[in-house]
Each structure stands twice: as C-alpha cells, then as structure tokens.
Amino acid sequence: MPGHTSPTTTSRRRDVILLGIAVTVAVALGAVLLIRQGHHDNAAPSTPGTQGGASSVTAPTSATAADRPSLGPLGEVARREAGDPLAQGSPTAPIVLIEFADLRCPFCAQFSRQTEPVLVERYVKKGVLRIEWRDMPIFGAQSTAAARAARAAAAQGWFWPFVQTVYAAAPSTGHPDLTAATLHDLARKAGVPDLVRFDADSTSTQFDAAIHADLEQGQSLGIPSTPAFSVNGHPVLGAQPTDVFTTLIDQLVAGKPITG
After folding, report:
1. CA end-to-end distance (rounded Å), the chain
2. Residue 185 is part of which domain span?
3. Rounded to an integer, what distance in angstroms lies between the CA atom of residue 176 and that of residue 153?
4. 12, 47, 149, 260: most buried by Cβ count inside 10 Å?
C-alpha cells in the first residue's frame, strides 16, 4: 500500500540510527581519551623534596598511566597540571589526593594541621603522592573572599604557606572571621612578598571563574560539605584520622583491592 512502511523497514531504520549514534559517541569518547592522555604524557614532572618520612613507601621507577593504581568510584578527578600552584608533588605521582576545602572550615583546618604534614613527609616528598586543592567556599561571602585571597597568594607562588597560615590561626570550632584586614595580616605572616599586589588581586574578581569551576566539580561529584577528598577516585569524607589516609594510600601503592 502507498505510504505504508513495513515493520521490517522501520526496524532496519531504527538499527541504522542507533548504530550511527553509537559510532558518534565512540569517536567522541576516543577523542577525549586521546586528549587527556596527550596532556598527561606532555606534563613535565616537578621535582619532589628529598626528605624521607617514617613510611617505607618508595616511589615507583615509572609513573605512567599504565602503572598507576586503578581508579575508585569517583573516577579520574585529578588534573595533573605541571606548575599548578594549587598542588603539591609531581604530576606523574601514581596517587593523587584531591582536597575540596573551605578556608573557614574548622575540619579543613584540622586536616591541614594534623594530617597533611604527615602525608607530605611520607608520600609527597617521595614522589608517591600528589595533593591538589579544590576551592569549595560554602560558608558565606567570607569564604569566597578567602578563596580569592588564596589565589592572590598563589599568583606570587605563596598559596600553600598562606593556606597553612590561615588554618594555623583558625579556632578549633566555629568559622573564623576572615575580613579583608585579617586576610592581609595573614598574608603578611605567611610571607607573601608583595602585599600591595596581594590586596589588589584578592579584592578583584579575576579568580572567580576558576573558583566556581572547582565548586561545580565538587557539586557534580555529590560532595555535601568540606573537607572532602578523592584519593585516586576513592572518596573520603570529613577530617578522618590520619591513618585512614595512610592506610588507603599504602593499599593503593601495594595494588590491594579497596573495600568499603
């Protein structure tokens, strides 16, 4: 009959359309993977410190993508950008810990004071671990202002000393009052070289897009609050005891399955 399409013809058309969609998705995914792999391969590793810690963990002789431990449920969250001022450790380290944090968060301060120094000594300085910061300002306007200030310090290569100074001065409970004057004083204590530039940069909006991108990444991962961490895609929520982090890192280095 004119205008009548048989079920067989309709089915074939549907199969052709689905095949076309599948091919398009496969090509796009392949392109993304190639771009990411090329970015990782071209990243120049930074030179980690040489001081040792108490752990017997040593850096692998090679840290290519094939050598890295398998990823957890969060997938690949690391950026591994060479020269990133908001990161500590080599871009080719086999394990990357992503920290989603707010400078007014008391539990982030606890992690900074108690756990981070241990991880730096045991793993970062041996090329085993990289720590990458992500801004997640969730405690009001002062949190955003503090994130801008930290980026302003980073522009002068002073991100980590500034962050550590902020957290060292934080109260054990509650959120600190981080006014512009307080942030300036903390930058001075941290040793930020050019305080005039710091004041100008920290009160501008030039870093807002990057801060918002970090916040969006955290929200896309379903992170409810700070601090929150991804260790090679394995989530750790809250300021957990230091041995929670060291045990997880040691298991990843040893290639052991991660449960729980």
Report:
1. 62
2. 65-254
3. 19
4. 149
